[in-house]
């Protein structure tokens, strides 16, 4: 099979990955986004394991909505000033 950007494929040895869409190809490997949510890089010597798939069967993975606004800010605590603890009055 000729692998090119935009092709919809399945991997013969890993059917559990589902159908994937080729997002990048070069002489060494193809980067494929599979419907299980993973992006995998397949080296060119394994292109023979890729087979054309029905484009209607490819469903891009659904991104989970972000949880909250990130980390909560740490509460500020009072810290003693440097040098104030060792100072003595004369």
TrEMBL record:
Basic residues compositional bias, start-end: 66-82
Residue span of region Disordered: 49-90
Annotated Pfam families: DUF3553
Protein's recorded name: DUF3553 domain-containing protein
Organism from which the protein derives: Geomonas subterranea
């Amino acid at each position: 099979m000729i692998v090119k950007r935009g092709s919809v494929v399945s991997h013969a040895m890993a059917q559990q990955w589902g159908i994937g869409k080729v997002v990048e190809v070069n002489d060494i490997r193809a980067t494929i986004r599979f419907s299980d949510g993973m992006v995998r890089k397949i080296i060119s010597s394994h292109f023979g394991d890729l087979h054309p798939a029905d484009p209607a069967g490819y469903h891009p993975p659904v991104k989970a909505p972000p949880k909250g606004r990130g980390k909560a800010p740490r509460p500020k605590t009072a810290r003693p000033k440097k040098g104030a603890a060792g100072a003595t009055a004369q």
